[in-house]
Amino acid sequence: MSLFKEYSTIYLEFKKHEIKFSSYDKYFNIIENRINPIFGDMNIQEVKPSDVKRWLYSITDVGGKSLRTYLSVLGGIFQEALYDEVILRNPVKVVRLPKFSKPVIIPFTSDEVEKIMAAAPDHNYKYYIAIAFYTGMRSGEIIGLKKSDIDLEKSTIKIERTRSRFGESTPKTKTSLRTIPILEILRPFIIELLELHDNEYLFVTQYNEPYLDTHTFVESFWKPSLKELGIDYRRPYNTRHTYATNMLYRNLVTPIQLAQLLGHASTEMVFNVYVKFIDSEINDFDKSISIYN
């Protein structure tokens, strides 16, 4: 008998050599928190498509995109067992995801941003939040920043690495390698942060070591602060959504410019996710224009 968790370990072992650390971290967490608690102690030969469907339909706290990833990881684990001829078929192959409505993005309001910024202690958390809200950078990109990435003369930040508890790597896509502007409102925070310590990384622990992830930030500040402030909980990633929606809504950038700032390969993500926040109404359209003259 082969336990499912034996092959989840094998799957992760191979993935460690095939994908970036950030993706490996994501898959590891999916297996540890979503998959192994259900299938881990089962005989992998006895898992049926109906078991997979029950598991899939029991997950109600994430959207369709996350469920597709969960199902893909689960299918990959069974595929390793299939390669070893431990099972005759992959039960995930016959399971189809139902159609899901896209999760609703609820950016923080300007008032909420001010409250969160004001509540941040006068150390790493304050600077992390400022960079997150005023650049839209991903968490791994923020804690991966080095002092050499900051150019105060040109007022730019160079993004060329990301960090997670499994190590440091380049960002998830080629377009994630980018240089973004430092807004004037962010500049004082950056200057203060540069003078805090002598480590090459911007964000370091009390032991003068670069952060591996943002777990401490989330548990020690983010969750309790939102609760205390009476703000509906949203993941720290929502700082990225808040930056993007405000940049569009206030007509500060074009969709193409926003895609470049966020590190997207095209404007597809911008139009799919953020287009409803563009401050324009069809009823305000100038009806007197001549299209072809």
Automatic annotation (TrEMBL):
Residues annotated as domain Tyr recombinase: 103-293
InterPro entries: CB, DNA_brk_join_enz, Integrase-like_cat_sf, Integrase_catalytic, Integrase_recombinase_N, Integrase_SAM-like_N, Tyrosine_recombinase_XerCD
Gene3D superfamilies membership: 1.10.150.130, Intergrase catalytic core (1.10.443.10)
Gene Ontology biological process terms from the UniProt entry: DNA integration; DNA recombination
Keywords assigned by UniProt, alphabetized: DNA integration, DNA recombination, DNA-binding
A Pfam family of this chain: Phage_integrase
Molecular functions per Gene Ontology: DNA binding
Residue ranges constituting the Core-binding (CB) domain according to the UniProt record: 2-82
Highest taxon of source: Bacteria
Family: Belongs to the 'phage' integrase family.
Protein name: Site-specific integrase
